[in-house]
Structures are given as C-alpha cells and as structure tokens.
Amino acid sequence: MVIPSVCQIASTVIRLIEPTVMLEELASALFDTALQVVVKDRSANATNPDTSREESQQRAMTNFYMTYNLIIHLTPILPALILARLGDRGWRKAPIVVPLCGYLLSRIILLLVVLLHLPLKVMFGAATIFGLSGGYCAFWPGVMTLVSLSSTTTERSKVIMRVEVLYGAAGIVGSLVSGHLFQLYSSTLGQGTILLIVSVVLLSLSLLQSIFLLQVKQISREAEDNCHLISQASSNVPAEAPVVKNMVNVVLLLVAAILYGTSVGGAVEVLGSFVMKEPLSWNAMQVGYGNAAGCSIFLTSFLGVILFRRCINDVGLILIGMVSFASGMYFMTFVTATYMFYLARLLTLFALIPMPTIRSLLSQQVPASSCGRTLTVLQLCLTFAGMAYIPAFTKIYQGTLNWLPGFVFLLSSILAVLGMIPVSIVGYRSPQKQPYERIQGD
C-alpha cells in the first residue's frame, strides 16, 4: 500500500512545473559560478601599459560582463513577445521549452570553451543564442502563466509563492555545491569541466521533463467565475478596479521602479568582479558561497512579506525593501574582508520585496483592461534602463578602482534612497482616496 502511494505521489509531482524550475535553477547556479571563475582565469593575462596587472584584469572582466549583459538584455525582447503570443494562443509550453533550449545551448558552449580552450568572446555568441530563445524574459513569465492557469484563485498566490521559494532554495543549494564541483578534476578533465557537465545534465533533464512530462492544466470555468467574485470581495483593495488611470501614481511608481531597478542592476553588474580583486580575491568555492548568499534573499524577502503584510500596506513594504538594500550597499562600499561582505548581504535581506510589490501596486492604479499593457511598459522601461546603467556603472567602477572600488555601491545606495521619494508620495496620496472608495463600496 505504501509503495503504490509513493509512486502515485511521485508521478503527480513530476508532472508539475516545480521540478522544471528547480532543475533549471540548480543548473543555472552551477553555470553562474563556472562563468565567473572562467572569466577571471581568462582575464588574468590581460595587460595594459598604463595600469597595474590587477586593474587590467578588472577592466577585462568588467568589459566582458558589460557586453555579455547588454546582449542578454537586448536580444530577448522580440522573441519573448512572440513566445508570449504563442502561449496565449494555446502553445502554453512554448515560453518554457524554447528558452530552456537556449539555456542548454549556452551552457554547452561554455563547456566547449573550457574543453577546447576557445576564446572567451565565444560566450558573446552563447549570450545571443540565449537571448534569441527568449531567455529569462520568456521563461519566467511562461512559468508564472502556467502556475496561474493550473491553480484556483484562492490558492494562486500561495502556489506562486511556493514556486518562487523553491526557485530560491534551488539556487542556494546549487551555489553551495558549485564551488566544490568546480575544483573536481581528473588528469583528462580540467577544473570546471565536471561542474559544467553536471549543469548540462540537469538542464537536459529539465528540458525533457518540460517536453514529455509537464502537464498543462487549466482551471475550470467555475473557478474562473470565482476569480472575479473573490477579487471584488477582497478587503485589502477597492471592490472595483479604477475606471480611469491614476496617471500621477502610475508615473511615480514607474520612476521608483526605474530608480530601484538601476540601483540593484548596477550593483549586481560589478559585484562579481569586485569580489575577485584584492583584498577579497575569492576562489571558486567562495564564489559559490557568495552566490548562495544572494539566492537566500529570495527566501528572506518572502518571509518578510508574510511577516510585515499583517501590519503595513504595500507602500510600507516597498520602503522596507528599499531601506534594506540601500543600507546593505552603503556597507558594501567599505568592504575589505569576506566576513564584511556577508554582513553587507545580511542587511539586504528584504531587497527583493520592492519590485513585485511595485508591480502589484501599479496594477491597482489602472483599469483591468489596461493592466497588461501597463506592466509591459514597466518591463520595457526596466529593459531600456539596463542599456544605460550597465555601461555607466562599468565605466564608473573602472574609473574609481584606484581610490574607492566600492564607490559604485555608494552610488547604488543613493539611487535606492532616491527611489523612496516617489513611493512615499504615492503613499501620501493614497489615503486621501480611501474614504471615498469605502463609501462607494458601501
């Protein structure tokens, strides 16, 4: 009796989206560590007649990441839109399967770079393939769409949170073991090869599971009808969506999102290179632990939402997250030892709260018919902001290497604080409308 029951549970679980997400994130965590260490090793021989060896290495690393990340930001825009349209027309697996193919090919290319000692610039081609497949821009919305369709309205937020927490947990596990796997090698296989082989195998399993085993469910018509009733009966939001756009709040929230997105993205852009230079000089194992600390923010941010939502509103949640990130980046400015890095990371426990909450708050400022377009505009604004802050933060970091390498983190902290201003204005404006909305609801 026990064995058939276990087999039945396993058969049910393997048809869900969670195994796809966890296998993908495990593989991506291994890949991120491998890429970071490979870039450092390949940049070790970079020379510049006017700079020191370490500064030349830092310039080579940051220049590579600048080009690599710009490609990843630019190329997925059109493919992601096409895949989203295919998904809406019934091909629900397309936004998941196609990006996973791009993930797999880019990981295989890095494996070939290591095995065949190919130039590091080959990874720009890998980034292009990754982007043309839709990348993360297509994969994650595809996952969220599938989760939404396969869950009832009352359980939807809980299921989405479960998927995101599992995603963060998989990243922590993958990052923790990545450094150890990178150092495994034999007489025929160099360092990093086994790590990348494991990453390719995990991604292959994720792709196969999504093609052959993943089950696409759709909630019944009765559940869809309940969705409207429950959303209108919510006690935390007005009974009806606004008839017209609250353009002032929309603009303020867009500005806040751009400022905070620039703050986070700019800091992350140079953080990988920062920990490789003196005085930190991390090895592969330390890189894995550092990435695990970054992934743990997924868990702590969701726990923060559960804890704080009982006593404060969305604006308060956003401000807590921004304060958390700003304080952590200010501390990161003066980091000179590994333990100080983890103390700075500890301060950023709630750094992932603002962006999802801004999206939620933004959707409440427009009619339901304009919600999708508004959120798309937000995503495009963040994408185009990346075209500006990636090269800007890279050049600022290169220009301040000799006197204050952590200056970019101070700049990131300032931008996060500036992002709090428009959010605070939205919070100040919102209570003025609440009495009217309550009377209208009665």
In short:
Helices cover 77% and strands 0% of the residues.
Which helices and strands appear, and what pairs or packs with what?
Layout: H1 2-13, H2 17-42, H3 53-74, H4 77-88, H5 94-116, H6 122-132, H7 135-149, H8 153-182, H9 193-213, H10 221-232, H11 247-274, H12 284-308, H13 314-332, H14 338-347, H15 354-363, H16 368-399, H17 407-429, H18 434-441
Helix pairs in contact: 2-5, 2-8, 2-9, 2-12, 3-6, 3-11, 3-16, 4-7, 5-6, 5-7, 5-9, 8-12, 11-15, 11-16, 11-17, 13-14, 13-15, 13-17
What would your notes on this structure say?
With 442 residues, the protein is mainly α. The chain folds into two domains: 205 residues, MFS general substrate transporter like domains (Growth Hormone, Chain: A), CATH 1.20.1250; 189 residues, Growth Hormone, Chain: A (Up-down Bundle), CATH 1.20.1250. Helix content is 77%, strand content 0%. It has 18 helices and no strands. Helix 3 runs antiparallel to helix 16, helix 4 packs parallel to helix 7 and helix 11 runs antiparallel to helix 15. The longest helix has 32 residues. The protein is globular, with a radius of gyration of 23 Å. The C terminus is likely disordered.
List keywords for this structure.
single chain, 442 residues, mainly alpha, Growth Hormone, Chain: A, 2 domains, 18 helices, 0% strand, globular, disordered C terminus
Question: Please, what is the oligomeric state?
Answer: single chain
Distance between the termini: 55 Å
The CATH homologous superfamily of the largest domain is called MFS general substrate transporter like domains
The amount of helix comes to over 70%
Count of distinct structural domains: 2
Largest sheet: none
Which architecture of the largest domain would the CATH scheme give at its second level?
A: Up-down Bundle
* DSSP helical segment count: 18
| SSE pattern | HHHHHHHHHHHHHHHHHH
| Rg, Cα atoms, Å | 23 Å
Looking at the structure, what is the overall shape? Answer: globular
Structural class, by secondary structure, is mainly alpha
Rounded mean pLDDT is 84
Reported by name, the CATH topology of the largest domain is Growth Hormone, Chain: A
Number of strands: 0
Uncertain segments are 227-241, 432-442
**CATH class descriptor name of the largest domain:** Mainly Alpha
Strand fraction band? under 5%
